[in-house]
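Dear H.,

Thanks for agreeing to be a second pair of eyes. The structure we're designing against is below in token form, covering all 151 positions.
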């Protein structure tokens, strides 16, 4: 079972709080929605790992710098190296590809239920639409129902 936890704060005016932690270390980021769609990158990275790829990458935009999460498979385990420009890398233990992908899927499903994504939300919350398709594909690859997870 993965010891990783992934949490998102509510999106607000193009910014999102992201926390990735294992038992000993954590990475805290306040990420921007420009110039790229990091949430979609995260879902695709998890899909790639479940499909058997040995490596995957997510770029988080911090304006003006970036943070990078490199997922690296070694044997049946996947580690996450989180690197922020100007800071030391943090190596987090992720578990198997399926365990890590499940952590990511659950966190994205919780984020998907945030009222900020609804059409009636006032103001711009994120420059990109929520990656519903990628998250659904990840859920299907993991054999999970499409109903949002609240745990």
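And this is the sequence the design step returned. I haven't edited it by hand at all.
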């Amino acid at each position: 079972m993965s010891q990783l936890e992934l949490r998102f704060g509510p999106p607000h005016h193009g910014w999102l709080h992201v926390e990735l932690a294992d038992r000993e270390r954590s990475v805290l980021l306040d990420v921007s929605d420009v110039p790229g769609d990091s949430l979609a990158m995260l879902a695709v990275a998890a899909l790639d790992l479940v499909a058997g790829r040995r490596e995957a990458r997510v770029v988080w935009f911090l304006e003006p710098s970036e943070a990078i999460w490199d997922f690296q498979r070694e044997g049946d385990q996947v580690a996450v190296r989180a690197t922020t420009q100007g800071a030391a890398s943090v190596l987090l233990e992720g578990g198997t590809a399926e365990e890590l992908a499940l952590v990511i899927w659950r966190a994205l499903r919780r984020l998907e239920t945030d009222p900020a994504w609804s059409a009636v939300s006032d103001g711009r919350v994120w420059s990109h639409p929520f990656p519903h398709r990628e998250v659904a594909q990840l859920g299907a690859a993991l054999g999970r129902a499409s109903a949002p997870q609240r745990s």
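Two observations from my side: Residues 5-113+123-135 form a domain with the Secreted effector protein pipB2 fold fold (CATH 3.30.2450). The chain has one domain: 5-113+123-135.

Warmly,
E.
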